[in-house]
Amino acid sequence: MALHSLPALSQTSAVPSTAQASTGDARPAGVIVHRARAGIQDANGWSIAASTRGDFAVRVPCLFNDFSLQGSETLASIEAIGCRAEDQRKYSASRFEYRQAAAARKYFEDISGPRRIEGETARRRIMFNGFPAVEVDFNSSSRCGTTRSVLVGATVMQLTVAGPASACSSLGVRAASFFASLRVTLRETG
Predict the structure, then answer these.
(1) Burial class (CB in 10 A: 0-12, 13-18, 19+), 157
(2) Which of 33, 89, 30 is nearest to 61 (CA)?
């Protein structure tokens, strides 16, 4: 399934809120929550989770949160989708949009290097729909999961499925389905 522009998707919407340190809000300053526990689940419990500002979508097996974080000098923005299923498996997809493609390539090369994740069991470079990617499996006494990072111009897409050790048995099948569902709108880069 190819990366492509997103069609208009109808989703549950909410008024964006910005976290304020003075209000006692638990969110860090700079986090904008666009939607919480959003989505329309199909007969199998999966929802299309489209980022409000990130120009990407994935399918997740739970109601999802959609949020943005402020950028930095090299990072223009971070847009993220995340959810936790009833079995405590967590699904997240984040778009790290860099101001320059060279900065995205440097970050991608850094995360493609030697082991960096606790309990890492496998690391492989792959191509995902024509784009370079790195996939890492991890398994420890308390948790397991897989993360995939894809370099798309000035963007690094990072997808992660993780869960407690008790939920590891069919994690790979769910991760493969989640990873394959990624759709991204390509943006002009610096």
Answers:
(1) buried
(2) 89
Q: Which of 108, 111, 141 is nearest to 123 (CA)?
A: 111
pLDDT tens digits, residue range 30-68?
899 999 999 999 999 999 999 999 899 999 999 999 999
Dist. CA 137–CA 89, nearest whole Å: 15
What distance, in Å, lies between the first and last C-alpha atoms of the chain?
27
Structure tokens that stand for 30 in this block: 């700079």
Q: Quick count: other Cβ atoms within 10 Å of Cβ 83?
A: 22
All domains in the chain, ordered by first residue: 17-184 (3.40.1000.10)
Find out whether 35 and 65 touch, Cβ atoms under 8 Å: yes
Q: Which amino acid is at 80?
A: A
Burial classification of residue 4, based on how many CB atoms lie within 10 Å of its CB (0-12 exposed, 13-18 middle, 19 or more buried): exposed
pLDDT tens digits, one per residue of 15-35: 334 433 333 456 677 899 999
Residue 42: count of CB within 10 angstroms of its CB: 11
